[in-house]
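Summarise this fold before class:
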Amino acid sequence: MPPWLLGSLCCVLAARAALGGGPAGAEAAATEEAEEKLIRVLVLLPRDDAYLFSLGRVRPAIEYAVRSLRDSGLPPGYAFQLTYEDSACGNRALFSLVDMVALQRRRPDLLLGPVCEYAAAPVARLAAHWDVPMLSAGALAAGFGAKGGEYSHLTRVAPAYAKMGEMLLALFRYHQWSRATLLYSDSNPERSCYFAMEGVHVVFQEEAFHMAVHSFDESSRHLDIDDVVRALQTGERVVIMCASGDTIRNIMLAAHRQGMTNGDYAFFNIELFNSSSYGNGSWRRGDKHDIEAKKAYSYLQTITLLRTVKPEFEKFSLEVKSSVQKQGLHEDDYVNMFVEGFHDAILLYALALQEVLKFGFTKKDGEKIVQQTRNRTYEGIAGQVSIDANGDRYGDFSVIGMTDPEAGTQEVIGDYYGKQGRFEVRSNVKYPWYHGRLRLDEGRVSEHTNNTPCKSCGLGESAVAGIVVGALLGAGLLMAFYFFRKKYRITIERRTRQEDCNMGKHRQLREDSIRSHFSAA
């Protein structure tokens, strides 16, 4: 081939390459650019509306945030593509993520959720392996605080339970207390109160506080609230509780009848998730016990997330409420901690992505994006959101107490600001325990000093039952041994589905390295 012809051919090929290879090349380039700017988001939340963080409740908040970012907040040309999958608060979350990558050949750019600890652990581990940012308003257990390894890509946009522990530590320091009884219900599958108390226990244990721990199953028909309260009398005089609102009320009524609401005890009730479903601090039910409950609640204070209101939040609340009601859900709390948190997670990701792009990285650089979500303060839907260096949101909390015992009025009496670590008491607050100093006997030794939850607080009944059962077993030892050998395999095979589920979750908890500082899971 003549040199001049070879040179001409090279020029033509170079020009064609510069123009994208014609229409087909231009189309391919445009498709590649669109793909680069499409942010695939996989949302892993349960469809079951029994959960406060169900897809039906949270989806309107996520889509509200996406709409708010369309005009400003995202780099030019970038857009979100949302995919919703049912996590079922279990292994289905992991399976959905694996199916998306293995079967559809599409790796998400962002994971939202899961919330439940048992579902979140394996997903968080895989997110770290695949370099995918994971933002969640859940996974609040203390074990997820170790971000150095398998949970490195997890950022929690709601205050973890340990943050609430830090708030209670500040409260205890204010009152000069160093001893506490932790009382909680451990009955629901996600074990919210268990993990909440674990967070408190971890913080108190680091300060060498003296603790007594009691648990109970509020769903049990054999539960005797009087027994629970009698067990409290053998513990410490500052009692921190976590249970449903009705159970808390029954405990306070029993404590009042047993003479524990006279200034010798201080009761604190944890209201989880800014929802009345957990720890509703109101004494009023419109029944015959209201008068007695009002007196008892003068010695109860409720810990809740600090509530702020701004004009945009009102609009957001109305839109979420309207969307949720269209799905047939009618309730008191349409906007809770999870609804707010997942809205703010979208905003946080958008801010982090912008920072990453400035430095020449892309949406595929997950670790870089995760780094930009940390040590950051930004404006969320309900106020400022601050994420610490570990990827955990600082918690701002309020203490609600009865300010008018005659009328039964309950108001905020103190606030805790997590970023500053500051607890502030509001003016004109009078504590029922003698000028803010509860009469604690520091030399008193609790009979229940173990850090393992006591599953049955009716100790007298258990002892008697143990003696009777022991005698019966002793009398029929040979028969029992024979039956055990013969029926052992059948018994194992006939375990109920619920028992299988519970055992599997407990085993999975350990395998997922959510290491409990509270008790063996």
Q: What stands out?
A: The two ends are 79 Å apart (CA to CA). Residues 473 and 481 are 10 Å apart (CA to CA).
